[in-house]
Write a structure and sequence with these properties.
Radius of gyration: 20 Å
Number of helices: 2
Number of domains: 2
Strand order of the largest sheet: 1-2-3-4-5-6
Structural class: alpha+beta
Bound molecules: zinc ion
Largest sheet: 6 strands, antiparallel
Low-confidence stretches: 118-129
Strand content: 25-35%
């Protein structure tokens, strides 16, 4: 059973509102976002979802169709850099808090892995969901 969340976006300056429909599709396993007045190339005006969030090869991705005349996504955003295990914990000198050195290359250093800090943090987040 797919799940749909209905709401509205509100512009705080102009007070303009647009209806929003966020759909978690059980078949595709994707999240699609429809905003009133916006669409994609191949869908009817009230059904287009120019923003899609997807998990593929264990990677969170966001697809955007910012041009309604283009069938293909105009933007594909790989969210790997936002993963919890990509967070670099630095001290006030900019050094890694686990090994005390400039080990930042987008991967956990051995000391951080041994501490398991981000792994535990990720598990807590899943339990909350
Ligand atoms: Zn380190």
């Amino acid at each position: 059973m797919s799940k749909t969340l209905i709401g509205e976006l509100r512009d705080p300056d102009t007070k303009i509102k647009r209806k929003v429909r966020i759909e978690l599709d059980d078949f595709s396993g994707q999240i699609g976002i429809h905003v009133q007045g916006y669409g994609d190339n191949t869908s009817g005006d009230d059904f287009g979802e120019p923003i899609v969030i997807d998990l593929h090869d264990n990677k969170l991705q966001v697809f955007l169709w910012s041009d309604i005349n283009n069938e293909n996504p105009t933007h594909k955003i790989d969210m790997t850099g936002a993963r919890l295990d990509k967070r670099i914990e630095k001290d006030s000198d900019g050094n890694c808090i686990y090994c005390g050195q400039k080990c930042h290359n987008g991967e956990m250093c051995d000391e951080q892995q041994a501490g398991g800090f981000n792994h535990n943090k990720a598990m807590e987040t899943q339990d909350d969901a």
